[in-house]
């Protein structure tokens, strides 16, 4: 009998994941067509692909916000298809943080209350959480804005609040759907620096989606998706080239161009 695969070393593993959306009229749309991949614990991965290619769908499945039509989503070695709604919610709360393109802050709560809210839901001791939140908000340059409401902040500041909120419970996995999509390049850089630091300092596994190659350049690995399929997917270890390889490829291209001109 073949030995069972040991997936505990991965933060996220997908096995032949398909996602079919059915609308109210019964029309079906196949968003993912069989995705298999492994993301190592502590890795920083960028998900790239054209609009409609399935990035958000994939992140939703990785975050157990949605379930695949078929295939398996394995988080920290645990197969989520065997878990009920309550268990999934527990897993999400204890393991996964989310950052969305539109920040998703609660408009009537202060910056500080937005950040501490998820911990209150969990019933975690609030004094320590409040102190941690204040310290982290100060670290990202928002120490003076704890009592402001989201609409009094710039887009970049709101996204920093959203990232602090996602990190305050020290999730082992952070999923960010176009976290810099609405930001100017300076704010985007601040946000990416925070994500990079969280990844290196807390060993958080970060997966972000982006259309921007410069943003993807912050990641250690890039996964390319098109029409619901991984590109260059030759095996279950579906991404196997890094930014370093891409840079080498760019260098080679430059040299080829230079030679062509000679
Ligand atoms: N709830 C839904 N019902 C029906 N179809 C959907 C639903 N959500 C997404 N889709 C379709 O699935 C495909 C993948 O969508 P998804 O949002 O994952 O793409 P994306 O890569 O995140 O695109 P973008 O870069 O524009 O955010 C799209 O063609 C979309 O229209
Ligand atoms: Mg999307």
TrEMBL record:
UniProt feature coiled coil, ranges: none
This protein's source sits in the domain of life called Archaea
Q: Which SUPFAM superfamilies match?
A: P-loop containing nucleoside triphosphate hydrolases
Signal peptide positions on this chain: none
ATP-binding keyword on record: yes
Keyword set, alphabetical order? ATP-binding, Nucleotide-binding, Transport
Q: What is the protein name given in its UniProt record?
A: ABC transporter, ATP-binding protein
What is the organism of origin for this protein?
Candidatus Micrarchaeum acidiphilum ARMAN-2
């Amino acid at each position: 009998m073949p030995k069972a695969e040991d997936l505990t070393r991965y933060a996220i593993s997908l096995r032949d994941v398909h996602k079919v959306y059915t609308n109210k009229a019964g029309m079906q749309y196949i968003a993912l067509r069989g995705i298999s991949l492994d993301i190592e614990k502590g890795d920083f991965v960028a998900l790239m692909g054209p609009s409609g290619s399935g990035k958000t769908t994939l992140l939703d499945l990785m975050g157990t916000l949605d379930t695949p039509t078929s295939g398996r989503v394995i988080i920290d070695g645990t197969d989520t298809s065997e878990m009920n709604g309550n268990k999934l919610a527990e897993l999400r709360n204890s393991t996964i943080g989310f950052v969305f393109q539109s920040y998703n802050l609660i408009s009537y709560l202060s910056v500080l209350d937005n950040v501490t809210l998820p911990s209150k839901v969990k019933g975690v001791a609030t004094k320590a959480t409040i102190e941690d939140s204040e310290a982290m908000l100060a670290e990202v340059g928002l120490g003076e804005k704890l009592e402001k409401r989201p609409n009094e902040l710039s887009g970049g500041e709101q996204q920093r609040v959203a990232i602090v909120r996602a990190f305050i419970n020290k999730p082992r996995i952070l999923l960010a759907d176009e976290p810099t999509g609405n930001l100017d390049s300076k704010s985007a850089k601040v946000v990416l620096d925070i994500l990079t630091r969280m990844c290196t300092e807390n060993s958080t596994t970060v997966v972000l989606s982006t259309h921007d190659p410069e943003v993807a350049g912050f990641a250690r690995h890039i996964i390319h998706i098109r029409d619901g399929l991984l590109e260059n997917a030759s095996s279950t270890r579906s991404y196997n080239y890094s930014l370093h390889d891409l840079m080498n490829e760019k260098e080679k291209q430059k040299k080829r161009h230079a030679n062509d001109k000679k």
